[in-house]
Design goal:
heterodimer, A: mainly alpha, MetI-like fold, 15 helices, 1% strand, B: 343 residues, mainly alpha, 17 helices
Chain lengths: 299, 343
């Protein structure tokens, strides 16, 4: 069964048991809250009140909370906003980052050093909250979705990791294409990128998660609460427990009534915020060590 | 991180005469030949004709960084003004250092500074070792499939937003959360950890551990994987037991990474993160949860003291920069690479 390294003697029973216990506890510590939140969001009102709060033992299940959430209104709209920002933002970030990472990956090319210096210098200091705000507002981006995308569109870290990966690809491969008259764009598209699928997926995930989780920028730059992304809604209705207006279009003042936040609905919002990460993550996870560590440690 | 840049430095040095630009780096043959080829002195126009595509590719990212990173740096001048958004930077009156003088006598600023440092110190003691221990533990799991599974699970919370993490903690440990619920079911009084200023340090550290300790193991696991396995075998032959092997082989193998991360952490002492504290400031109260970042936010955007907030932010940024530079000096003292190489 287990292939022990050649030098290891058989581990003691107690030690093995203890190790297993600790590892199980750690895994459970991560999974248990998620399990409970998902379960509560799927429970009926009766099951929730019977449990006196969060549900730990499955009772009667229902999708009522989700139906209510997606009947239109605040949550539906915020999910759409978050999805839109994530898709558009990730696309922009990935294209820009990949291009720049390749453009800077050939030492000795024109202006390569000053440009790289410019990128690396951003590690040392940030402009600060107020100047950032002043810039975004003077660009007229307040209350625009672009305020969630453009300021963080390029992360120096991701750029450097990607560049380090590209630099590890032997030059001979692309040189032959260059002799055949391929343009740099073509080399990137047909040779370099197919060899870097893993690292591209990981960097894409990093960007996507950043956009999906964007909360503080939204608080700063979006005054209009009709434009709120999901994370802000999550804070408002779940963390702060404000009454939630669900199930009707928001611009009519009479339609629908403010519901007291029921626990099942609150937990359903949490699940909606959680889901995309849980969904995409397994596909990208196996590239973590290969793609990122190699890049990060070398770089 | 900048090591790569530094390593290729001599080769990419555009000012050196032709022929001397050959890289001194003997590690990577491909890189050396490539670098040598590229440094042959050619007139600017020829190089432009050769490299214009690469330049064009780098341009969008460089442009974005300049606009959203370097241009705002100029905005810091309002720290020396009595800035009013209605007048603009150009016409706001200059007030010299008076904003900074006010700052020095502002108790709430010092409270925020003390809170920030307290949180940094606490996390250094109680958070920092956790990923190392976890990595050693994970590394001892020999079955690869099981190990990948556990790694996958513990990495995951890193990708959750702070709103989500705080919400989950509230559901577990808040006044209406699972812990209180269970306590009440058994006839005890419920407790609310989420609003208790006295245990706030423990709370934020626990949150940080839950969110990032797993992710933090990646770099240590890589360092562990790089340790020569023969050393273990040799030590075992010499009669070293499991603990001695950990002490004499595993931990020394981790030392460079630990030192590097420790130094980097010191350079980031004033950056404890924004969202985590912003989200919990109301529940716990200003006295415990105000950090420098939230101080700047509340002082500016809510009360309109723009210049004052900018001054506070500038002080924080400058102190942070000094800390990073100092930390890097220390790194060199230890014989580590640091974040950039000594030039």
């Amino acid at each position: 069964m287990t292939t022990l390294p050649p030098w290891a003697e058989r581990p003691s029973r107690a030690g093995l048991f203890l190790k297993g216990l600790v590892l199980t506890l750690i895994v459970a510590g991560v999974l248990f809250p998620i399990y409970m939140v998902v379960l509560t969001s799927l429970s009926t009102q009766e099951t929730v009140s019977q449990a006196g709060g969060l549900v730990t033992v499955p009772g009667e299940l229902s999708f009522a909370a989700y139906e209510e959430l997606f009947a239109g209104g605040v949550v539906t709209r915020s999910v759409l906003v978050s999805l839109g920002v994530t898709v558009v933002g990730t696309a922009i970030s990935l294209v820009v980052t990949v291009l720049a990472a390749y453009g800077l990956s050939r030492p000795g090319s024109l202006l390569h050093r000053p440009m790289l210096f410019l990128v690396l210098l951003t590690f040392l200091f940030g402009p600060g909250l107020i100047p950032n705000y002043l810039l975004v507002s003077s660009l007229g981006l307040i209350d625009s979705y672009w305020s969630l995308i453009l300021p963080g569109a390029v992360t120096a870290f991701n750029l450097v990791v990607m560049r380090a990966f590209f630099m590890n690809i032997p030059e001979e491969v692309s040189d032959s294409a260059r002799i055949d008259g391929a343009s740099e764009f073509r080399i990137l598209r047909t040779i370099v990128l197919p060899m870097s699928k893993g690292v591209t997926a990981v960097i894409g995930l990093f960007y996507a998660v950043g956009y999906w989780n964007s909360f503080f920028n939204a608080v700063l730059y979006l005054n209009d609460n009709a434009k709120w992304p999901l994370q802000v809604v999550l804070r408002q209705y779940v963390l702060q427990g404000q009454a939630l207006v669900v199930g009707q279009s928001s611009n009519s003042t009479i339609a629908g009534q403010a519901l007291p936040p029921s626990l099942a609905i609150q937990m359903a919002i949490v699940v909606v915020a959680l889901l995309p990460v849980l969904f995409v993550y397994p596909f990208v996870q196996r590239h973590f060590t290969k793609g990122v560590i190699i890049g990060a440690i070398k770089g | 991180m900048l090591r790569d840049h530094a390593k290729t430095g001599p080769a990419g040095d555009l000012t050196s005469p032709a022929g001397t630009g050959v890289s001194k780096d003997v590690g990577n043959r491909a890189q050396r030949t490539r670098a040598a080829k590229r440094t042959e002195r050619q007139p600017f126009l020829a190089r432009l004709r050769r490299d214009w595509q690469l330049l064009l590719m780098a341009l969008p990212a460089i442009g974005l960084l300049i606009v959203f990173h370097y241009v705002p740096l100029l905005g810091n001048v309002i720290a020396f003004q009595d800035y009013s958004p209605y007048v603009g930077i150009a016409d706001s009156p200059w007030v010299g250092f008076s904003n900074f003088q006010w700052l020095m006598f502002d108790e709430s600023f010092w409270d925020a500074t003390l809170n920030t440092l307290a949180i940094t110190t606490f996390q250094l003691v109680f958070y920092f070792p956790v990923p190392i221990l976890l990595a050693v533990l994970l590394d001892s799991v020999v079955r690869p499939r099981l190990r990948l599974f556990i790694q996958g699970i513990v990495y995951m919370p890193h990708f959750f937003s702070w709103v989500l993490v705080v919400t989950l903690f509230q559901q577990m440990f808040g006044g209406a959360g699972l812990l209180s619920q269970t306590l009440r079911d058994h006839g005890y009084r419920g407790i609310d950890i989420m609003t208790n200023p006295d245990t706030f340090l423990v709370l934020v550290t626990a949150e940080t551990i839950w969110k990032d300790a797993g992710w933090g193991t990646i770099i240590f696991l890589a360092a562990l994987a790089a340790i020569n396995q023969n050393l273990y075998e040799a030590a075992a032959v010499d009669g070293a037991n499991r603990w001695r092997r950990m002490w004499h082989i595993t931990l020394p193998g981790l030392r460079p990474v630990v030192v590097l991360l420790l130094i980097l952490r010191l350079g980031e002492a004033l950056n404890v993160g924004f969202e985590q504290f912003f989200l919990q400031r109301d529940a716990v109260g200003r006295d415990a949860a105000e950090v420098l970042d939230t101080f700047v936010y509340w002082r500016t955007l809510l009360t309109g003291e723009w210049s004052y907030g900018a001054a506070a932010g500038l002080v924080k940024g400058l102190v942070g920069l000094i800390l990073i530079l100092m930390a890097n000096k220390v790194a060199h003292r230890f014989g580590e690479q640091g974040i950039y190489k000594r030039s």
